[in-house]
Amino acid sequence: MYQDSLLHIDGRWRPGSANETIAVINPATEEEVGTVAKATESDLEEAVGAARRGFLIWRKIPALERAKIMLRASALIREREDKIARLISTEQGKPLYEAINEVRAAAETNDWFAEEATRTYGRVIPSRGGGIHQFTVREPVGPVAAFTPWNFPIIQIACKMSAALAAGCSVIVKAPEETPASPSELLRAFIEAGVPTGVLNLVFGNPAQVSQYLISHPLIQKVSFTGSTAVGKQLASLAGLHMKRATMELGGHAPAIVFADADLDAAVNGLSSAKFKNAGQVCISPTRFLIQESIFETFVERFSEKAAAIRVGNGLTSGTMMGPLANERRLNAIDAIVSDAVDFGGEIRTGGKRIGNRGYFYEPTVIVNPSNEARGMNEEPFGPVAFLSPFRTFDDAIEEANRLPYGLAAYAYTRSSTTAAAVGMAVESGMVSINHLGLSLPETPFGGVKDSGIGSEGGTEGIDAYLSTKFISQI
Length: 475
Ligand code: NAD
Prior knowledge:
Layout: E1 7-9, E2 12-14, E3 21-26, E4 31-37, H1 41-58, H2 63-79, H3 81-92, H4 96-116, E5 124-125, E6 133-140, E7 144-147, H5 155-167, E8 171-174, H6 181-193, E9 200-203, H7 207-216, E10 222-226, H8 229-241, E11 245-249, E12 254-258, H9 264-276, E13 286-292, H10 296-308, H11 328-343, E14 347-350, E15 365-368, E16 385-391, H12 394-401, E17 409-413, H13 417-426, E18 431-434, E19 453-454, H14 459-464, E20 467-474
Parallel strand pairs: 7-8, 7-10, 8-9, 10-11, 12-13, 12-17, 13-16, 15-16, 17-18
Antiparallel strand pairs: 1-2, 3-4, 5-6, 6-20, 11-19, 14-15
Helix pairs in contact: 1-7, 2-4, 2-5, 2-6, 3-4, 3-6, 4-5, 7-8, 9-10
Residues 147, 149-151, 176, 207-208, 211, 226-228, 230-231, 234-235, 249-251, 283, 329, 380, 382 line the site of nicotinamide-adenine-dinucleotide.
């Protein structure tokens, strides 16, 4: 059932003009399952022209009508849940139940932004003189270039595309070449729901060439990227050079602080499920586990048991709890991160090696007492590896939590409301979840500080990113 993926430009599904394709690999089998069309510069130019024309149409459609079209798209996504989820599992590797949750989250995100389309209020500002009317209106910024990664092939697109559509913008999505079929199905739902020609365009290609072309193009008004900090810095500087608004959702290295008074069941269950979700390839995955010393050994034992009990396998096989890594680069990266941690004195409590020699499977891995000099304690691991270290005082934990240039997500477990309030304020990160897993909802902001990015997706902040404020003074 896996299909080859095409470009969608100016209302047409078509191959790239040079007829070039890129192979798509199933990470569970290492087999080529299909291909994806590669855009040339002339394809991109056509996409930009279409997005400009589409923008002029879409921005004039009343918000309520835009919302109705978007809600029809949600209904189609829900109808096709099983098909889209199977595509996600096949091309990305995650277990089917995680893929189904991703499809549902994409529809829910789209619903939320559709409704928000009708609430992009301006304001009236009292004037200094009689007869002067001063007010602001929120206007869509214009055609958007959205670059999304392979770890969540459709929800990452929905967070950008649905907010942009709700605001009245047109979009060129540069979706991930490694996972192209599920994004194609996502866009198909919007197109069949009645989004006018040119408003949504989908391209794939050489990521560096596509981003260079689109970001520097004078008709593109806004850039949104999710991916690594290294690439994000390059794209943000290109956006700055061309005076483009930019939202950057970049890497993280989330601390998870467990205080001695924590509900240990909640901490072990919550953090192990967050850690190994999507084989750890999640930007808000907990990575540095800081455990207060009096409960360190107990936590390590219970967390390691949980990790060792995870059934790893093909995402499409029933009973699979964790799939393969998404590509060979991640497998090699995780192998290198684990052996480096051991070289620096870290002790593997469970896991630590590849499973089999076909498919990019890796054992859920727990490493205790890692050195802060180990690579994995400094670079985003982006894989199924948890680093567990003991801490003595609140200040010690916060110092370690804030040590890195990242600041995306943080987690804490404590029964003390005083400690909970203090940790919420002291951690340098864009999001903090205390005593439960509460991040990443359509209605709440999602974004980082420091090297983890600029701006937020989700919540009212998510749509603000696609609006500009115009001030009008009128007698
Ligand atoms: P990468 O940095 O090469 O690519 C990350 C993403 O950015 C991919 O989707 C890729 O297609 C895209 N990309 C790369 N160069 C680009 C460019 N010049 N212009 C536009 N897009 C570009 O790394 P990778 O091997 O695919 O993934 C490894 C790292 O990426 C991970 O360690 C993680 O830090 C990060 N990552 C983060 C997220 C996230 O949700 N924040 C998602 C995927 C990957």
